[in-house]
Specification:
The chain has 359 residues and is mostly helical. It is built from 16 helices and two strands. The chain is flat.
Length: 359
């Protein structure tokens, strides 16, 4: 049987050849399913000339094209690429257009192929079961001896064990007591409440202990109301020129509240570090102004920069070299990024070279 028969003639559009050594060692190389899918989609655009005198050209599909092929967002593709770069499996080379602007990057998987050659020197961790090549079906094993018949009635020991197991798995809950007149005014649990009757015994002790631990952790995770109120009061007394990296979180929260949005992002250590770098580079009042305008004009900004979701400090920091001119100077600044806005320090061109997100 030919390969064309298996795929119904779809091979006419081309195919990507994958060595079995790579498939057998995905776990050894620590390649996740998402990373593997991205590698295959990128290699679909790899050019291998028939003439051996020509050089193999590495592919350069755009982030949007890869996201459409994989059925994911542009951000997901950028994250998978970042993971492959951290694992040193791919080299990303920036390209520019004839006009000097940024365009899609070139992806060189030479490092990954070198890792595969090294890993292929040792046997694969798992081997496939032998297959009958004539019938293409696994050989069935016929049991040499019939299975012993099940006993008609369980032994006394088994009966006692099953009874204990059933009682533990399905504890009998006591019947709810009738409400006494003295408790008539107390609130009663509604149907669907997460609090249930404690079955008692060892299982009840475990449930009570775990519920107490979960309640204690939840209380510790939330800051006391007095701390939240004092922080908000101190923020309102400041002028924008006095804001620090922690205040930028409140700037975003105020902007979300004005837009009627819920779920404003809570700052992490990385968010504070990024806000601190922006304040040192632009001053606190400029950063606060850009953050506020980004939230207020989010529909316009997100469409211009091809962003999804809601604004965040990661977005402001990632597109800082294009976002700040766009917000402060208007669309006439022609600050349109490719995939991020971290310029090369050694780039002499006025527009700069946008090479990545920088975080």
């Amino acid at each position: 049987m030919k390969a064309d028969d298996d795929w119904g003639g779809t091979l006419k559009e081309g195919f990507v050849s994958v060595p079995n050594a790579f498939l057998d060692r995905l776990g050894t190389l620590d390649v996740t399913p998402g990373q593997f899918m991205l590698i295959m989609c990128i290699l679909r655009y790899r050019f291998i000339p028939k003439d051996k005198t020509e050089e193999i050209r590495w592919p350069y599909p755009s982030i949007t094209t890869l996201a459409a092929m994989m059925g994911v967002t542009n951000r997901t593709v950028q994250l998978r690429l970042r993971e492959l770069r951290l694992k040193r499996m791919v080299k990303v080379v920036a390209r520019v257009t004839s006009a000097g602007g940024p365009t899609s990057n070139v992806y060189d998987f030479g490092p990954l192929f070198g890792m595969l050659e090294t890993a292929a020197k040792t046997p694969a961790p798992r081997r496939a079961l032998p297959v009958d090549e004539a019938s293409h079906t696994l050989q069935k094993r016929v049991p040499s001896e019939p299975s012993p018949p099940l006993p008609s009635e369980p032994s006394p020991e088994e009966d006692e064990h099953q009874k204990k197991t059933k009682d533990l798995a399905s504890p009998t809950l006591p019947e709810p007591a009738a409400a006494s007149p003295s408790r008539a005014g107390e609130p009663r649990l509604k149907l669907g409440s997460r609090v249930q009757n404690n079955p008692g015994g060892p299982l009840g002790e475990i449930i009570a202990r775990k519920m107490a631990e979960a309640s204690s952790k939840a209380r510790k995770a939330l800051p006391p109301p007095s701390q939240v109120a004092s922080r908000r009061a101190a923020f309102e007394e400041k002028s924008p020129s006095q804001y620090n990296c922690n205040d930028m979180e409140l700037v975003i929260r105020v902007g979300f509240a004005k837009r009627g949005w819920k779920g404003a992002p809570t700052f992490t250590g990385k968010d504070r570090s990024q806000a601190k770098q922006l304040i040192e580079a632009y001053s606190p009042d400029v950063v606060a102004d850009v953050v506020q305008q980004t939230i207020t004009r989010w529909e316009e900004v997100s469409a211009h920069f091809g962003a999804n979701g809601f604004p965040s400090m990661a977005f402001v920091y990632g597109f800082r070299n294009s976002l700040f001119p766009y917000v402060l100077n208007g669309p006439q600044s022609k600050a349109k990024p490719g995939a991020g806005s971290q310029f090369n320090a050694d780039d002499s061109r006025e527009k700069g070279d946008e090479v990545g997100w920088g975080f």
